[in-house]
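User: These chains co-purify. Model them together.
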Amino acid sequence: MTELTVPEAFAGTIAALLLLVQLQLFRSVVISEFIRVYAVQAWLVAAICLGVGITEGGWDLIVLAALTLLFKGILLPRYMQSLARGISARIELPARINVLLSLLIAGALIGISILTSVQLPLHQGAFLPKADLATALSMVFIGFLVAILRPNALAQVVAFLTLEDGLFFGTITLAPGLPFVIGILLLIDVLVAVVVFAVLVRALVERQAAASVTVFQRLQG
Amino acid sequence: MSALIVAIVAIPIVAAILSLVLRSRIGSAVTAIAGVATALCIFATVVTTADGHSTLDALSSLFLIPVAIVYGTVGIYGTWYVRAESIGADGDERYRREFLALTNAFACAEAVVPLLTNMAGLWVALEVTTILAALLVRLQGTEASLEAAWKYILIASCGLAIGLVGVVVLYASGTSVLGAHYAPNWATYIAMAGKLNGDVLRLAFLLALIGFGTKMGLAPMHTWLPDAHGAGPTPTSAMLSGVLLSDALYVITRFASIANRAFGPSMTQHLFFIVGLLSLFVGAFFLLRQRDIKRMLAYSSIEHMGIVACGLAFGVRFAVVGALLHVVNHSATKALAFFGAGRLAARFGTREIDGISGGVAVMPISGTLFALAGLALAGMPPFGTFRSELMILTGGFSSSAWPIAAVMLALLLVAFCGLVRWTMGVTVGPMPEGMSRGERDLGAIGSMLLIFVAVLGLGLVVPAHLAVLLNRASDIVGGHP
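Assistant: Joint model of the two components:
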């Protein structure tokens, strides 16, 4: 058995924490908890970005880590908390199925991600051998699952953002050499997408206080 | 980068800024001029590419043509649209400016996609189109438009997320050959395709097909499409259906060419068959039960994307060329159909098919052009769509996958019945009581006549420069640039 290096152990720990934190979304009942989960996840993603930057000697990744921490870890959660305040911060978020069943499905999705990626010879140049793609895919799938199971506009936005964190994690660990400009564009893209989401959430709230997307049943067939 | 390419990007951006700050009457004129100017630059680029004097390759130039056709006419159509249809809740000046500015910005983003060959850059450009399109769909301020915009941005963004995983996996596959740091350009992957791991590339293509296929409206990831096309402003529907779907296809074909080059066309063909036939099935049968004129056209888009996917799947050169030609034909025909549907819906005050009848009697030009567009979408001669569908089917029946061509033909007949039934239903018949006859909106009529030239012309003859591009683009898709 090969011993893990310190960077690999660090990345593995962050990957496990990212998944554990994301699973919290199934048991969170108010939107402020959702946003806190996202903030913690953003800090973890910034940490992995910093770790890869230091190990690989890439100043661009260190800058990206700082920007990620600032925008995704601090400013975005604050903005979303202000958006949630007075809308549905205290309203219990609906869930289509119970927590246990949700976690079982999430576990199955993690299993599928591991089975899909573990056989692939992807790991040359990757920062987190064996678990990089599996973690990224798991986070994307769990993000989808949360968006489906929690029919609330803000909850779906947070689900999308955690899904995007999975993409960011995958990009950093699987392809640390991807040009810096792509990382920056990804970050800007997320910020713009959140603004658009916010526009839509505000419009939705103008119509009904709970920001529930269960009313979206008009357009079918 | 040539001056023409700079102009293709710069003109819509300048028009977007001017539309935002100037009065909407001037802004709509600026948009019309910008659309025509951009179209001329694109056609000049197409000619220079065919002559071998452009930095763009044939596939990029080919996928610019839908931008030229649709943006070139949307601007002219918009001069009528901003006056006739209430854009915002109160139809005020602010909403009109936003509509014009977003339309120009959206056109710019749509034009940027085919100009790129950097696989990561393509993802970013497509995501920008998603954001701008969601804002446009939302603009009318109705509950239906809010629902459509929400579904669109959520589903499309999630789809693109999967597409990005595909880009990252593709990048990771190249690190074993090129090292950790390299630019993820399509040409780089093509050059080293033989050295990439086949399993990794297969995963990358699968993820790209699911992710970008969501944007292309391929079933079963198509659920956002009828809502967004139905609820958005009419010019936006034309741009979504006529250009955005082909932009997403462009990204998929870039991935497909790398995969085809690396391990042959077998896997890409099988996957194209699956999503193609499924899209044809969904589009054809849902067409039969539509009650909304724009949603009917949206399902027709799903059907036509299925036709294109099947054409690519047959692998025979004649069918692949037909599929690529069908992209151009579909964009022109669908834009004409949406323009006509918008005119009829505005005059009759409803988008419900049951509420519209005698369209030709009420609006002799727009009604007739809508009817012809409907027949063209159904695959009737002598229009361009007939030519390209015939090429795809001929190629299909000449290949080993002829049973799939037979299934495709059966599904096309189902779609034909749906399209002809609804199109004739709204256009043929006596003029309803209380309606006045005639139309005087030069902008709208002019844009529709202009685009009809393309719809009919491409059925009669394929210009030499376009034929050159189609053949070269077919080689690129096959992985042999």
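Chain A touches chain B through 49 residues (CB under 8 Å).
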